[in-house]
Amino acid sequence: MSDEYVDLSAEEQLELEAELSAFADDEAERLGLTERAHYVENVATTFTASQRPHTTLLVSGLSMAHDHLVCAALAGIGYKVQTMDVPDVAALQFGKEFGNRGQCSPTYFTVGNLVKHLIKLRDEEGVPAQQIIDSYVFLTAGGCGPCRFGMYVTEYRKALRDAGFDGFRVLTFQMAGGVRQATGEELGLKIDQGFAWQVVRSLIAGDCVNLIGYRMRPYEVIPGSTNEALEDCKTILADTFANNRSVMRALYRCRRRLRKVRIDRTQVKPVVSLIGEFWAMTTEGGGNYHMQAFLEKEGAEVDIQGITNWLLFMIWEAGWDTRRRETLRQDDEAKKGLAGKDAAKKQWLLKGGYYAIIALFNSYAKVLGLHDYHLPDMNHIATLAEKHYSNDVRGGEGHMEVGKLIHFVEDQVNHMTLSVKPFGCMPSSGVSDGVQSLITSKWPGAIFLPIETTGDQEVNAHSRVQMMLFKAKQKARAEYERALDETGLTEDEFKARVSNSRRWSRNFFRPKHKTASVVTNLVYAVA
Length: 527
Ligand code: SF4
Prior knowledge:
Blueprint: H1 10-31, E1 56-59, H2 64-76, E2 80-83, H3 89-98, H4 105-124, H5 129-135, E3 136-140, H6 152-162, E4 169-172, H7 193-216, H8 225-242, H9 247-258, E5 271-276, H10 278-282, H11 291-297, E6 301-303, H12 307-326, H13 343-368, H14 378-386, H15 400-410, E7 416-422, H16 426-442, E8 448-453, H17 458-487, H18 491-500, H19 502-505, H20 518-526
Parallel strand pairs: 1-2, 1-3, 3-4, 5-6, 5-7, 7-8
Helix pairs in contact: 2-7, 2-8, 3-4, 4-6, 7-8, 7-13, 8-9, 9-13, 12-13, 14-15, 15-16, 17-20
The site of iron/sulfur cluster has 15 residues, from helix 4 and helix 16.
């Protein structure tokens, strides 16, 4: 069979479509499908503006800082909001008990976490099930996949029904809006510019707090002092968002608090980038075997991926898809299609949004003391990845994981890359187990470890990480000794010079990037 396309005239196309439609009708008749109605899910999503004062929005699913700040930001625009605990192994068990078989582990963790929270309200705090159904709403992100992400909302509903909360409302951002329903009532969740601005700012502020924490904690002199300061920062920021005060001023107050943490950056630590599936690399609990805390305990500096990267990736995707749609023979009329829309204007708006997010992130980072942090350039990542993983493939992180790994090696960003790959994750299996083997054979300098996160193999996973981390530590040490050799400094001289200098021992000082580890860069800066 030839795989060449045949150009049909309009008349021939109509003829072909009529023939196909007649064939479909005949087949439906033959198989007895004509009377069968499509399955329509009975979805409870009514949340009206009049219910807002006595309805609590439950929020969860990101890092602890993000959940906390998003919650405060929504409270600042008039919602009653509550965060749930970080999903743990008990949540996974609830997910497995009430969810369908064969889901990916983030589905089990997140769905189970909601069920666990509601069961606790009902069984331990004595709130009647009907009252929970009437006065709580769960807010989450939705999507059409193409992986299991498209099934999350249905999974939530199935598990809630089986756990005794039939009719509990699970809302996605996509379902919300400021429009009026058939009843004429205004919707409870009003996603407008004010809502988006509040959420985006809280996510970016959460990123900056997390990033500076991961930068400082491995080098703290007094154990626990960074976390104490970070808790104060989260309180300052949450208070600011909840009362609609100046975020810049709050970040400056956080900077003054973080300045009090004593730091010693002359310790040799390997930098480990944590990448992989979005939820698994972001959560800080059983969903990734507490990987960030484990790596730090084992003597590494963790390079986390912020939510801002994800925002930039989504805008990049929209721009890419728009460019592809422009090449179609005719404008498509799907939801994201270009029929009746100005494609050039859309591109400019996307570009504006992309750079506005970068500018906002950079200004928050600068005020907080997070100097020289570079957000990934999405075009660059896409170009790096495209030879090995198509930029058109969607699901999970798309091509990002591949592009990031190449970027990490080429630009000496880290000593090791750890990819968390949830059990049952379709996109991650293709990337971490498939394409990345090709990348590591082409870039042999990469120390890459994919870890499957099932939720119940923590000891195994940690032991695999320890083995690979040993290599990363050796690499970091060799790099440091080479720098001392090249600069003619002894270790004692280097340490003495750093401790005697206010500039080099400042908490927020960031030596110019030359190699992955901060200590080696500091050697070059001192020399
Ligand atoms: S990317 Fe993987 S883990 Fe995440 S929702 Fe899709 S299938 Fe599940």
